[in-house]
Design brief:
mainly alpha
Length: 232
């Protein structure tokens, strides 16, 4: 399946822009949905309050919260599937291909947990599952991003169509962004949660780090023969 996606994106036409559209479709969707939910709940003391989960604590805002995170999860994984497919075309060893499957697998595994967070309100009887979904889902999606960028920076010889300084800078910024995001999430998670600033910082860092994947999708995917020539 990933090879089929790679071949489609190697050709000129609309297919090569699919991951960029999916990526930003997800980011814009969550921004709009949370923004409208916030206008319903009230965000006068943002980012201290409300916490992200609090945006689902009304009958009017809960569907927007669920819709936003659903679109984000689906669109992000679609974009990452395209990214994993692009890498498949260049990776030369079985170990590298397994590593490529691992980081993408973690991203896919995050989806049901994100959906659990999206559809179970924190103020419901099953509120504990909401926080379980949030912690595991964001942890997995952040870990997937860290592994992807570390593999690309230190092991995979990929993205040869992108200027070296630009691609290496992107890898480094992504690793730093994802690590900071998970760190701020963890600090907030073990705190008394009276101040939600770190939660919002962590979430925005996740969005910014994945948003920077745009650089990979902005350059045309090289067919396998062309990649071999550039690498050689």
């Amino acid at each position: 399946m990933l090879r089929i996606i790679h071949d489609a994106m190697s050709r000129s036409g609309c297919a090569r822009w699919t991951p960029l559209v999916a990526l930003w479709g997800g980011i814009v969707s969550i921004a709009v949905c949370l923004g409208v939910a916030g206008s319903i709940v009230g965000v006068s003391d943002w980012p201290v309050n409300p916490a992200i989960s609090n945006l689902a604590e009304s009958d009017q805002s809960a569907p927007l919260f669920a819709l936003g995170f659903t679109l984000l999860a689906v669109c992000l994984v679609a974009a990452l599937a395209c990214r994993a497919a692009c890498l498949i075309g260049t990776l030369t060893s079985v170990a590298q291909r397994v590593a490529n499957a691992v980081w993408f697998g973690l991203a896919v595994l995050a989806v049901p947990f994100i959906l659990m967070m999206a559809y179970i309100r924190d103020d419901s009887a099953a509120g504990g599952l909401h926080f379980l979904g949030a912690g595991v889902g964001m942890g997995l999606i952040g870990l997937a991003g860290i592994l992807h960028s570390l593999f690309c920076l230190c092991w995979f010889d990929v993205d040869v169509q992108i200027p070296p300084k630009l691609r290496k800078g992107a890898y480094v910024l992504q690793v730093v962004g994802f690590i900071l995001a998970l760190t701020t999430f963890a600090i907030w998670f073990v705190s008394d949660k009276s101040d939600s600033t770190l939660e919002w910082v962590g979430f925005l860092l996740i969005m910014a780090s994945y948003g920077s994947f745009s650089v990979f999708f902005a350059f045309p995917v090289q067919p396998k023969d062309d990649q071999a020539h550039l690498l050689g």
